[in-house]
Amino acid sequence: MKCSLIVAMGKHREIGKDNDLLWRLPRDMKFFKETTEGHTVVMGRKNWESIPEKFRPLPNRKNIVISRNVEYKAEGAIVISDLKEIEEHFNADSDKKCFIIGGAQIYQLALAADLIDEMYITQVNETFEADTYFPFVNWDDKQGWEEEKLFESEKDEKNPHSFTVTKYTR
Ligand SMILES: NC(=O)c1ccc[n+]([C@@H]2O[C@H](COP(=O)([O-])OP(=O)(O)OC[C@H]3O[C@@H](n4cnc5c(N)ncnc54)[C@H](OP(=O)(O)O)[C@@H]3O)[C@@H](O)[C@H]2O)c1
């Protein structure tokens, strides 16, 4: 089976700091919600814990949390300890998608396992101080990735940074 991946990153692939996001971009949050709603989302234990309790599990989505700790409890979510277990909780024949939603360790794990055939990347046009980065993907030789620009968003009073959303498929 294959999964989609969705991420928002700064100019240097930065995605987080102190187990939090680096920006508040309601327009990108809306895109994330609309894209993943109705589907399954898979996240690392740290990403799960970074979501305020009142917002988790992410509504209208099956939430799967990955932790090496088999005793770990995430209320309202399924806990797995190996990416391979996704298949047990996911019907690949349905029209539902499986979305890898981070953080960095889980993106790395999914890319290394060759699990990803679709990526939604929000490129924020700014640099940020960060401690967590999206893994390096060599876009130059494309590695079979086909690029489709979905939309651009200018900054405004509610969205302090401009960004571009691109979809990659292979
Ligand atoms: N900008 C974005 O789009 C975006 C998206 C998501 C997250 N983020 C940010 O990313 C940061 C969190 O990312 P992170 O890389 O620190 O953590 P993470 O990937 O969310 O979670 C790491 C945890 O996943 C579990 N894990 C890792 N490898 C595993 C394996 N091979 N098998 C089983 N479990 C495994 C471990 O949990 P245990 O320690 O419990 O074993 C590990 O501590 C935060 O700052 C968050 O805000 C940004």
UniProtKB/TrEMBL annotation:
CDD domains: DHFR. Residues 151-170 are annotated as: Disordered. It comes from the Bacteria. GO terms for cellular component: cytosol. Residues 151-160 have a biased composition (Basic and acidic residues). GO terms for biological process: dihydrofolate metabolic process; folic acid metabolic process; one-carbon metabolic process; tetrahydrofolate biosynthetic process. It catalyses: (6S)-5,6,7,8-tetrahydrofolate + NADP(+) = 7,8-dihydrofolate + NADPH + H(+). Residues 161-170 have a biased composition (Polar residues). GO terms for molecular function: dihydrofolate reductase activity; NADP binding. Its EC number is 1.5.1.3. The keyword NADP applies. Coiled coil: none annotated. Residues 2-170 form the DHFR domain. Keywords: NADP, One-carbon metabolism, Oxidoreductase. Pathway: Cofactor biosynthesis; tetrahydrofolate biosynthesis; 5,6,7,8-tetrahydrofolate from 7,8-dihydrofolate: step 1/1. InterPro entries: DHFR (IPR012259), DHFR-like_dom_sf (IPR024072), DHFR_dom (IPR001796). It holds the Pfam family DHFR_1. The keyword Transferase does not apply. Gene3D superfamilies: Dihydrofolate Reductase, subunit A (3.40.430.10). Key enzyme in folate metabolism. Catalyzes an essential reaction for de novo glycine and purine synthesis, and for DNA precursor synthesis. Belongs to the dihydrofolate reductase family. This is Dihydrofolate reductase. It comes from Brumimicrobium oceani.
